[in-house]
Amino acid sequence: MSRTEYVGIFKDKSDLEIQLTNDDIINITGMMGSGKTTLARQIKKDKKMDLISLDWMFGASLKNRPDNIKQLLDSFINEHPEIKNKDMYYDYADLIYEYLYKKLSPSKIFEGRHIYMYMNTTTLKGKIIIKRTSLVHSYKRAFKRDMQHKIKEYKSKEINLVQVLKRLFERIKIPIKDYIMINKYINKMTSEIMKK
Description:
Blueprint: E1 16-19, E2 25-29, H1 36-47, E3 50-53, H2 55-58, H3 67-79, H4 93-103, E4 108-111, H5 114-118, E5 127-130, H6 135-155, H7 161-195
Parallel strand pairs: 2-4, 2-5, 3-4
Antiparallel strand pairs: 1-5
């Protein structure tokens, strides 16, 4: 893989698109703050496709999970009683993806960091779009969004100042780890494509 395919530190690059199968599925992944959700919503609007945010399964957006996804996930958990809490969902990322693939309409968008963090590349169907928004730009967007949420929670007394500061320090560590992981994923994905 050439270095031009890597996510940059300071400069945004165009999205990397790879066709994996002929399924009418678009998988969108990238670092936190890279614009995955914005792109997914635009495609959903333009192409009238179902949108599944993997944050509804694993992340902070559990409370935003649509009822049909909640029902499907409850059914999945009934079939897999060994899942006792949401932290274990990460171990089942591929199975959850396959389950939603079979149960939902043929045209769908999967979006989330979980694609490059927890899923096998061989599980994915359709096309993958890897957002290559720069580390600096992604971090700035994610930090601003996250801290606005935390300050709002603090003002409404849902969390205390210590929890706000804890999240601030967590947020400082995440981007470098994210940056290393997404570039390893790009390397793995392009290597596997070249082998075919």
